[in-house]
Amino acid sequence: MNLIARTSFRLRALSHRLSTLTPLRQQATCATTATPTFPCVDAHTARESRILASSFYHHSQTGTASDDSGPEPPYARPNPLSYNTYHHQHPLELTYGSTLPSFDIAYETWGTLSPSRDNVILLHTGLSASSHAASTEPNPTEGWWENFIGPGRALDTNHFFIICTNVLGGCYGSTGPSSLDPQGQRYATRFPIISIFDMVQAQFKLLDHLGVQKLYASVGSSMGGMQSLAAGWLFPDRVGKIVSISGTARSSPGSIAMRHAQRSVLMADPNWNNGFYYDDLPPHTGMKLARQIATITYRSGPEWDQRFGRKLRELKDGQSPSPSRSPTLCPDFLIETYLDHQGEQFCLKYDANSLLYISKAMDLFDLTLPALQELTMTPATHASPSTSSSSSLQSPVPSKSHPPPLYHAPHFPELAAGLEPLKSIPVLVLGVQSDILFPVEQQRELVDALRMAGSTQVSYFELGGVWGHDTFLLDVLNVGGAVRGFLS
């Protein structure tokens, strides 16, 4: 069955299903036992019908699949005028043995590059962000870090030239699973497994192209904090300062478990089709559920209490919420409707395969020395970490001002040894007490390990508040103030 025939069949099936909903409800009023109805399921069916109709219309007009085929989610056609694109035409060797024959990196800039090109800050994104960190003349819409970039702000454009990229593996202009391979076919899940190190290597190819020999600073939050550390580790002679906000030097089992759950529900969606969905219905149900799981980890319980409590949603017929009303299996509580909304907003805005690949790269990130040695990783233009026997790892030499913590995890000495290339770079670490995705213990461990590795230039701030992991997006006063002070 070809694509148009298959889409037409599914449209007819959905149309029949929708047409039976009203008669069923009418029958339910006359029956002794009412037939159950589920508005949330009906809404999902209606969404799928609209997506299919859009896809069917496009294919019926073109008659064949093309670069713009499929249900046309926003990530598939970013505005080429709103960002710059660097094309690297040479192969890039990746961490896990594969090679990309070439790649594109989408990037945007703010501020003015100094004549000596020494005022550059590389801003790293979280998992699903684009290069649009702040508004620009080509794209005046607000960016994901809008209030932190500009004159007098944390990343002060009066002094610095800020570069932000969409990461390798992404879907907002950089090469990723939704991109075309050299044969003109979507990579899909034929795209190679990538690492945080690969993302940084691609960014530094861009810096080479721009003639930037050394960064004033590498700044990042969440996954961006991982990239920021990786940039300093890979290129210790090319990074002047490091800022890691709600990041970690080693993914914890807890965060790996959370991301595994997201990937599991996404890959269980039959529309995922082993990653080959670009010319058909995308796995929007799996993406919606994955986003709901993620949203729970981005905020905190105390914030849920303050914002929603146990309040019930308003009824569509205008009735006021009442604890005495009959509960349903669809969302009743405001917190449920919020998660539902977050999932709906995200499920077609980001490529499902990019979510799989980038979240996996986060899981694989580990700066302990044995993990680095297993990958045969070595910093560029810097002496490699000690490769002596494992017994020496149990007693890293601490700085005189910071003795080893009395109680530490078994991997702590190995982490301190792995962080040795960063010991000469000033580092700012910010942690958030209400963060459940990257718990504050991970930032404390990073600081202790850096000091144990011999660093005497580590600054650490621990923030309160109820915003959880998303504090780095919201707390302009404290996050922005700490970053601006460190960079000045």
General form: globular
Low-confidence stretches: 21-32, 56-72, 383-396
Strand composition percent: 5-15%
Q: Look at the helices and sheets and give the structural class.
A: alpha/beta
Radius of gyration: 25 Å
In which order are the strands of the major sheet placed?
1-4-8-5-9-10-11-12
What's the helix-strand series? HHHEEEEEEEEHEHEHHHHHHHHEHEHH
- Give the overall average pLDDT: 86
Percent range of helical residues: 25-40%
Main sheet: strands, sense, barrel: 8 strands, mixed
Report the total helices. 16
Q: What is the number of beta strands?
A: 12
What is the terminal separation in angstroms? 63 Å
Overview of this protein structure:
The structure is a single chain. By secondary structure, the chain is α/β, with parallel strands linked by helices. The protein is built from 16 helices and 12 strands. Strand 9 (217-221), helix 5 (223-234) and strand 10 (242-245) form a beta-alpha-beta unit. Mean pLDDT is 86; it is low at 21-32, 56-72 and 383-396.
Spell out the key features of this protein:
488 residues; 39% helix; single chain; two-stranded antiparallel ribbon; 12 strands; alpha/beta; eight-stranded mixed beta sheet
